[in-house]
Amino acid sequence: MPKERTATLRLQDVAEQAGVSLATASRSLSGAPGVSEAVAERVREVARRLGYVANVHARSLAGGVSRSVGLVVHEIGDPYFAEIASGVLRVGAREGLTVQICHTGRDPERELDQIRLLVANRVGAIIVAGSGFVDASKQAAAKADLQAFQRAGGRVAVIGRHHLGADAVLPDNQKGGRAITEHLLGLGHRRIAVASGARELTTIADRMTGVEEALTAEGIDPASVPVVEAEFTRAGGRQAAERILDEHPETTAILALNDDMAIGVLSALRARGVSVPEDVSVAGFDDVAVAQDLAPSLTTVRLPMAEMGEQALLLALKEPSSRPRRRHAGHEVVARDSTAPPRR
Amino acid sequence: MPKERTATLRLQDVAEQAGVSLATASRSLSGAPGVSEAVAERVREVARRLGYVANVHARSLAGGVSRSVGLVVHEIGDPYFAEIASGVLRVGAREGLTVQICHTGRDPERELDQIRLLVANRVGAIIVAGSGFVDASKQAAAKADLQAFQRAGGRVAVIGRHHLGADAVLPDNQKGGRAITEHLLGLGHRRIAVASGARELTTIADRMTGVEEALTAEGIDPASVPVVEAEFTRAGGRQAAERILDEHPETTAILALNDDMAIGVLSALRARGVSVPEDVSVAGFDDVAVAQDLAPSLTTVRLPMAEMGEQALLLALKEPSSRPRRRHAGHEVVARDSTAPPRR
DNA sequence: GTGAAAGCGCTAACAA
DNA sequence: TTGTTAGCGCTTTCAC
């Protein structure tokens, strides 16, 4: 980190070169009114020639405005969040905004720390992606900080169902859960098992609600359906699949609550010599890029991740409304090769 | 973005509440020496109680130091860069650094814009990930800006071979290219084809150099090996595979120069009814997370992406040396199910 | 239309 | 050990 005073160009230098005052130079470069076009153009020309770039810190300190936004994700290495980030960065670049990204590891405490850091950085907006917690108290502290941030003029948008009192982009978790279950039921499956992540996450809870709706509508008691809870990862999917195979050998279809788990399920089935979709059908959720490249290609629910990222930033860029806005993101069941009618 | 002056807490408020001067409050919170532990603790307590967070802009303006770094990637939605970013964020969080990420889309002009933006943001360090260009002039402007940034006290680290005059983490592209080719040759393949990306990228050039070394060592004329150039993506891999199948039906092994292309190759082969590895072996490069989950699982060269990200930030955090440092990242051929001895 | 000057919130000399 | 004060580079009234 630079310690010694950096010898960079200041606006003062540009002003002197252009033979105008600091104020005029400032106005010229920020496009503020009250400067003749001729002078403004001259100043801009000088700035360009000198390679001047304004000091964002000074600018934001003096003007109280910030051209940067913060994005809080679980883990950027996870394709789900990488896609969301991609959407956010795209809009950010278009709007000339800097985007700061940070990890939470789904730990409310780290989340809080990161949010505080973003507030300290005086970002103009904060976007929280990733699942909320069913237990609102887990994010109570974050909520308090975000509310204070909003009162101070900051903007907040979340992706997913949170109890954070902010504009939200809502993935179709419940409807998607219902739709993918209907797809399985429509194929004739009656012995379905679910590979689930931690139920304390709203993402999981909502997807499960959808699953249960579809089950009930078909006259199946949700309580009769095995739901194996494991980590929301490949490894978790593998474990879940093994337990399902061992404890519920009659299962004809496994629904994994995200693609990562579905990939783990596929790998466990392969290892056990269970063929998909002949012996067991497998479905996922999210439609990460690789879902189509697996063999068999994965039937899943497509969530428009990148678009959700874009929407979230766009929401955050709007004037705040009196009540939190909600945008529903849509979903689509993508039927591929991993699901087929059951044999029996 | 907040327009109205935000009514946040200032250090002055904390100082008053604690009954000390601004300077003492500053020292207490930044851990500077010259304050009695008792007073420092009291100030910290007050700050905590009030929920005070220092204004980074004021801090960096006054102190000339910055606790943030910039990361320049091709596209964050690409798993290769997402993994690198994950490594950078991990170290960043540990060091209390904010990380700004931006896209270039492999366009030198956008890269330059983004670098300028980072400089304007007075980040302490800039990390440029992604391939360099064989033609140094394409990044000449970026180089000039980065050099100026370094002279002004900023730190720069690159991942990959660039002509940027900065510390570098070098993926084992050449050695890896040689090793994976040797793997194919070792299995007995003599009719190998390469699905390559644009040769203007150093990543591709280096991997090809390794491939050619191995070929030559085995007494095969590199010029006799078909190299199909296409986009460095799945779609590009698909196209390349189709051309290889059409124009060089005798091919027994296809080496794709990254996993993304390899996935496209696999998908094209599947569509054509060509079985892997029985009819044709396929190998990739990078070992992105899904490589192991494909069917057949993909033989590839593992590059420690997340670690490369960590290393790059660590390099950038060190004191600058008189001459650019180089860190070699290592590689490992991971033999999986997509390669086997040729039939014929 | 242009310039002078007062801060923005903080750090770092320099005094006490 | 503590306090006073002068900036950091910019935006923004307020005069002219």
UniProtKB/TrEMBL annotation, chains A, B:
Identify the species of origin.
Nocardioides iriomotensis
* Sorted UniProt keywords: DNA-binding, Transcription, Transcription regulation
Q: What is this protein called?
A: LacI family transcriptional regulator
Q: Which PANTHER family match?
A: LACI-RELATED TRANSCRIPTIONAL REPRESSOR, LACTOSE OPERON REPRESSOR
**Taxonomic lineage per UniProt?**
Bacteria, Bacillati, Actinomycetota, Actinomycetes, Propionibacteriales
- Which residue intervals make up region (Disordered)? 320-344
What Gene3D superfamilies does UniProt report for this protein, alphabetically? Answer: 3.40.50.2300, lambda repressor-like DNA-binding domains
Q: Which domain of life is it from?
A: Bacteria
One GO MF annotation is: DNA-binding transcription factor activity
Q: Does the keyword Flavoprotein apply?
A: no
The reply to whether DNA damage figures as a keyword in the UniProt entry is no
**Which parts of the sequence belong to the HTH lacI-type domain?**
9-63
